[in-house]
Every structure is written in structure tokens, then in C-alpha cells.
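Quick check before the chapter quiz. The format below is the same one you will see on the exam, so make sure you can read both the input and the output lines.
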Amino acid sequence: MSQFPSDRTLSAHRPQAITALERYWRQIRGARILPVRSEVDPSQIDTALPHAFIAERLAPGVTRMRACGQRLNDMIHADGRGMPLSKFFTLGARSELVAEVEPVFNGPALVEIPLAAELDADREIGRLLLLPLEGANGVVDRLMGAIVMHTPARRLAIRRDGFIRREILAPVARPALPFDDMKEKGPQRPRPALRLVVSND
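Here is the expected output.
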């Protein structure tokens, strides 16, 4: 597992909106395992917003849209809010989708999936990015994601034999200072700060 995407996962097909959304998620995440849902600011993801969504896990295998970008509404010719994420996928792809979504909450994990059309599962036509979020109660029951297509499709499948990126998340490591850098010697060693205490007794 690498902290950031490798060249293998970032193919020439990776849409700019997917890259922008992940960059924003990492920015608000900071050094923590996950950002919190309330920290997501739609005004900061202009590039990705038409393709983006927020979903809530209601039960194992049941994830429903709470906010949905206009491009996604256009795909299904309806308002996607309140609909299951599986609504965008073919019947045959839904069990496979659930198998990829559950680790997002349970890992937690970042997952990126190459998408295909219903009748041509060998050709990539878009990407699905799933980024876990912590809910108000501290439980990982939300995710921020995006579906970005470069070829139109009404219903999606997961690309056959495509590389699915799965990144189990941990706090971002900060490089430790060498011991010698933490302990200065000689006359250059900083003196302890002085604090003036006044007593009026």
C-alpha cells in the first residue's frame, strides 16, 4: 500500500475531477485517518461538484445518496437524492459494487473503480472514487465520491479485469526529527523561556 497513488493507478484515463476530489479530501483530512462529514465544503470542489455525491450507509450493503451532482442526476434522468448508489449500476454489477463499497466503511479504505458499459465490460469509460468520511457520532457511516464518465452510459458495470485501487487508511505519518536535531548542544542551545510571576499579596 502506498500513501499516494502510484503511476499504475493513475492511468491516462483518470479524469481531472477524480484527481481534484481526492486532493481536496486529503487536504481536509490532514494527519488524521479521516475527515469529518461536516468539514466538506462544496464551494471548494468546483471541478468535481457536478460529478460528486455524499452517501450514507444505512445498513451493511445499503448505501443511499444524500447529495448528488447534476451530471449524476442527468445519467438516471431523476434526482439521485435518496436513491441507492446501486441505482447507477446494472443488476449484474450490484453485488460486486457492494463488495467494493463495504471496505470503504469497514477499513476504512479509499477505493477507486474503473467503470464500463453494460454491454462492453472490457473497455473503461469512466471512474468511481469512494472516500470515507466520519459522521457526527464518530462512526464511519458517510462517504464522499464521484462518478466521472468520458463516454455516456445509462447503467454502469465494473470493468472486467480492470485494476481496482484499494488503500487501507491510517494516520498520515509525520517524519520524526533526528535526535541530534532535537537536542542542541553548546552555547547555541536555546534557554528555557522565562515567565514573569507577580504577586500582589
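If your answer matched, good. The first helix runs from residue 16 to 29.
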